[in-house]
Design goal:
- The chain has one domain.
- 25% of the residues lie in helices and 31% in strands.
- It has 4 helices and 6 strands, in the order βααβααββββ.
- The radius of gyration is 17 Å and the shape is flat.
- It starts with a strand and ends with a strand.
């Protein structure tokens, strides 16, 4: 089976998981849920995103907001990254690099540029460009009820 990789540059929001999870309430639950599902952890290469996706994808996070909040608090406080051996699928969960609760969530809002690579064991360089005449403004009114956010430039790399 082939492998695909994509890289995208976006403007988006940065917020600590601890800040966004503790703000969950009945009023903002759908907005925060959307951010949690579409966001990813700022992670250079420590497997935080893999653990984060396990937490988000293995529980019905579309339930009652109080149950979801409690679940996310527990999981993100007690999980971090993991160590993985090179020659097997064995994973050992660890808090050596910190807890998920202490990591930043990045939520893309406006994609600026993207490129993909796919194939079998493909190596080399891909690239993309666009003229500099595009609008960098971003409407963040939807997120104004969420505190402690920062508008950032995001470079996201996805492999699968």
């Amino acid at each position: 089976m082939g492998k695909s990789e994509s890289v995208s540059a976006s403007i988006g929001i940065k917020i600590l998981l601890s800040d966004i999870i503790t703000q969950i309430n009945e009023t903002n639950f759908n907005i925060i849920l959307d951010m949690l599902v579409n966001g990813f952890i700022e992670d250079p290469n420590d497997y935080f995103n893999e653990v984060y996706r396990e937490i988000i994808d293995t529980y019905n996070i579309y339930g009652n907001y109080t149950d979801v909040k409690e679940y996310l608090l527990t999981e993100c406080k007690n999980k971090g990254s993991y160590n993985k051996t090179k020659f097997s699928n064995y994973k050992e969960y660890t808090l050596d690099n910190g807890r998920l609760f202490e990591q930043y969530l990045l939520v893309p809002i406006k994609e600026i540029l993207t490129t993909e690579r796919w194939g079998y064991d493909r190596y080399g360089t891909n690239s993309a460009q666009r003229p500099l005449d595009f609008d960098l403004s971003v409407n963040i009114d939807k997120y104004k009820s969420i505190e402690n956010t920062e508008l950032v430039f995001i470079l996201g790399q996805h492999s699968g």
